[in-house]
């Protein structure tokens, strides 16, 4: 399960669809509707929110908006639209790590997008995240990438 902290605008089509499905699974986990993935580390940040329900729905809203901008047909009835201001934090190290991880995937999956993104200097997070100083988050399962992937 990968629930990206980076903005979904960076994802290729396959990545955006996977994010939608995985976040819907995460929503089901947080709502107690499934027994799998209940201890998945990427869910910790949503569990720590004042309302994990609001947090995951707010996250899904951003993914949905990105999908609509690309003319995807995602079902708006799969989540509850949250209009309240809700911010979680994410470290700069996590944002950097995720972007590098995405580039490694895109290098094999979507070379055009890889070339377009590899020069990005300022990486935007999902709008519900406020970037704070720090390294890679403790919930991340770190995969080492070759240096040439930067």
Largest sheet data: 2 strands, parallel
Question: So what's the overall shape?
Answer: globular
Ends apart, CA distance between termini? 23 Å
Structural class: mainly alpha
Radius of gyration (Å): 15 Å
Helix count, DSSP H or I runs of 4 or more residues: 5
Q: State the low-pLDDT regions, or none.
A: none
Whole-number count of domains: 1
Average pLDDT = 91
How many DSSP E strands?
2
- Strand order in the largest sheet: 1-2
User: SSE order, as H and E?
Assistant: HHHEHHE
What does it look like?
With 150 residues, this protein is mainly alpha-helical. It has one domain. Helices cover 43% and strands 5% of the residues. The chain has five helices and two strands; from the N terminus they run H-H-H-E-H-H-E. The chain has helices spanning 13-30, 44-47, 52-69, 92-109, 111-117; strands at 88-91, 129-132. The chain has a two-stranded parallel sheet with strand order 1-2. Helix 1 (13-30) packs antiparallel against helix 3 and helix 4 (92-109) packs antiparallel against helix 5. The radius of gyration is 15 Å and the shape is globular. The mean pLDDT is 91.
Summarize, please.
The chain is mainly alpha-helical.
